[in-house]
Design brief:
Strand content: 5-15%
Low-confidence stretches: none
Helix content: 10-25%
Number of strands: 6
Shape: elongated
CATH class of one domain: Alpha Beta
Strand order of the largest sheet: 1-3-5
Order of helices and strands: HEEHEEEHE
Mean pLDDT: 92
């Protein structure tokens, strides 16, 4: 049996009901919506979260925490990703953009220490972790924080 030979079980998939196609169809006139009322109208129905006038759950539950709308999140790059650069080269945000390590300019770049590096590079970033700095310097490279 191949993927293109798969079929649903016999009788498990009926044809969809075509609503509002004349009284003789059995689903004509009101098309199963009932008579009058908000749900019978086009565009009718309640908004998400509405509970019929009862205090909605998103208002009943207590709110906790705080989201700082001014927080700046840098793009994260791991040490192992820097192995694609030639030994002795200078790696900055523009070089990372060209290589596709950073998708778009954000609030700088933070270098993280995941993985290993086997070449000496001059890395210019906005933030760095302690382990990333140790690994770059152990490989004979240097880190510059701007």
């Amino acid at each position: 049996m191949k993927l293109n030979e798969l079929k649903p079980a016999k009788g498990s998939r009926g044809s969809t009901r075509r609503l509002g196609r004349g009284v003789g169809s059995g689903r004509g006139m009101t098309a199963g919506r009932g008579t009058k009322g908000h749900n019978s109208r086009s565009g009718g129905g309640v908004r998400p979260g509405y509970e019929g006038g009862q205090m909605p759950i998103h208002r009943r539950l207590p709110k906790r925490g705080f989201t700082n709308i001014f927080s700046k999140k840098p793009a994260a790059v791991n040490v192992r990703d820097l192995n694609r650069f030639a030994a002795g080269s200078t790696v900055d945000e523009a070089a990372m953009l060209r290589e596709g390590l950073v998708k778009k300019r954000q609030n700088g770049v933070k270098l993280l220490g995941h993985g290993e590096i086997d070449r000496s590079l001059t890395v210019i970033v906005h933030q760095t972790s302690r382990r990333a700095k140790e690994k770059i310097e152990a490989a004979g490279g240097s880190i510059e924080v701007v």
